[in-house]
Specification:
The chain folds into two domains: 202 residues, MFS general substrate transporter like domains (Growth Hormone, Chain: A, Up-down Bundle), CATH 1.20.1250; 213 residues, Growth Hormone, Chain: A (Up-down Bundle). Helix content is 77%, strand content 2%. It contains 24 helices and two strands. The chain has a two-stranded antiparallel sheet with strand order 1-2. The longest helix has 33 residues. It is globular. InterPro entries: MFS, MFS_dom, MFS_spinster-like, MFS_trans_sf.
Length: 461
């Protein structure tokens, strides 16, 4: 037994030494980088969602309507987050990615704190725009960094752990809504050092912005990784291998595989963003549960189940890919739909809240396995374009998923069913149509993805 353990340890050390010899960082440091980026991603989602928990006091303080609040939550953030993600990603493909992320974290944290000091609707709108601009710098640069920090056979797990920031940040925000927010709002005014008395709701923005300083300090301990697989001009390489194609030529040449990924993830996002937006209200309207209580349980399910599903999906994709399954990541995405779709559909049709929560707890670990789609993008994209392709991916997926998912469910409730109590059927209809279409789109892209992977094979890996 001791001999086997020693042999295994020596093999791990040899593998690590081999990776270091090829320019890959040591595994312990690589996972440290993942941890820092995960912390940044989690914080970004808390900062992004915190305003949704403070609708009532913000409306009262600024004397604004529901429509104006919805613009603060959605348009002010999402428009600049998605559109500016493209030029920022262009910078990430050329500049120091660590420094770009550091600037982004500092900007969105300062703007989140600024939301707490906004004295008018216009200043709050501008602050929310700033949060979106800052957060746009994170994911495209982070995915590109991770692709140069981990070899292909371990990349899916690393990106899955990073992606835990989505359910973890969203879950923490919902849990905050059930505990901390109510506790803070119980006090009418709070005395801040050097500032004086301010309305209690404003201090919540300061509390969620403060950890950004810690993340900035941690980012200073992260090194910009060497870019693997960058295609040099023939005169520099001394051979006749072709350089990377132009960005638009790359998109056109990979339209089948990229189209399958974009379509599949957009349809999944349509369902996921819609469910996240409306599930607490669904529990209130269907079962008479308090919205804060529903948010608490749903937040726990998202944080734990979502994290477990992302890690499971990344591990499964890595193992299948190591066994030679070229389209492993698309297959895992389709599997997540086949396993998670039925319990999600069943959840909104359950006769009581306990069964509905149980079905959601079963569905979320399965559905979040689809997060390996971002890994597939890195595999078929040259290093020169990774940040831009990732930003384009987020632009499309967020525009369709975040932009239309919650709205589509609301439109069906208002205009097809014409009954607030029919929210469950709107969720069921969107889920029952969008997820099968996503599975079909992903299946159609299997062969194209395998072919593009072979053609875009990164020799450094």
């Amino acid at each position: 037994m001791a001999t086997d353990i020693a042999k295994g340890a020596s093999q791990d050390e040899a593998a690590a030494a081999g990776e270091a010899g090829q320019g890959w960082p040591r595994p312990l440091y690589s996972w440290y980088v993942v941890g820092v980026l995960l912390l940044a991603y989690t914080l970004s989602f808390i900062d992004r969602m915190i305003l949704t928990l403070l609708v009532a006091p913000i409306r009262a303080a600024l004397d604004i309507s529901d429509t104006e609040v919805s613009l603060l939550i959605g348009l002010a953030f999402a428009l600049f987050y998605t559109v500016l993600g493209l030029p920022i990603a262009w910078i990430a493909d050329r500049w120091n990615r660590r420094n770009l992320i550091l600037v982004g974290v500092a900007l969105w944290s300062a703007m989140t704190a600024g939301c707490g000091f906004a004295g008018s609707y216009a200043t709050l709108f501008l602050a929310r725009m700033g949060v979106g601009v800052g957060e746009a710098a994170l994911s495209p640069a982070a995915y590109s960094m991770l692709s140069d920090t981990f070899p292909r056979d371990r990349l899916a797990r690393a990106m899955a752990v990073y992606s835990i920031g989505v359910p973890l940040g969203s879950g923490v925000a919902l849990i905050l809504g059930s505990f901390v927010v109510q506790a803070v709002l119980a006090a009418p005014m709070v005395d801040l050092p050097l500032i004086g008395p301010v309305e209690a709701w404003r201090t919540i923005f300061l509390w969620v912005a403060a950890p950004g300083l810690l993340v900035c300090l941690l980012l200073l301990t992260v090194r910009e990784p060497r870019r693997h697989g960058v295609r040099q001009p023939a005169a520099v390489r001394g051979d006749a291998a072709p350089p990377a194609p132009g960005f638009m030529a790359h998109l056109a040449g990979h339209r089948a595989s990229l189209g399958a990924l974009f379509a599949g993830m957009s349809l999944i996002g349509l369902v996921m963003y819609g469910v996240i937006a409306w599930v607490p209200t669904f529990f209130a309207r269907t079962y008479g549960m308090d919205v804060s209580q529903a948010g608490l349980w749903f937040g726990i399910i998202m944080a734990t189940g979502g994290a477990a599903g992302l890690v499971a999906g990344g591990t499964l994709a890595d193992r299948l890919f190591a066994k030679g399954v070229a389209d492993a990541h698309l297959r895992v995405m389709r599997l997540s739909i086949l396993l998670g779709g039925p319990p999600l559909l069943a959840a909104v049709l359950m006769p009581d809240a306990t069964l509905a929560l149980a079905m959601l707890a079963l569905a979320f670990p399965m559905l979040t396995m689809h997060g390996v789609g971002t890994v597939a993008l890195q595999f078929i994209t040259p290093n020169e374009y990774r940040a831009r392709v990732t930003a384009l991916y987020f632009f499309v997926v967020n525009l369709i998923g975040l932009g239309f998912g919650p709205m589509l469910i609301a439109l069906l409730t208002d205009h097809l069913f014409g009954d607030d109590g029919a929210l469950r059927y709107s969720i069921a209809l969107v889920t029952g149509v969008a997820l099968p279409l996503a599975a079909i789109a992903l299946t159609a892209g299997f062969s194209a993805f395998a072919r593009d992977l072979a053609e875009t094979g990164d020799p450094a890996r």
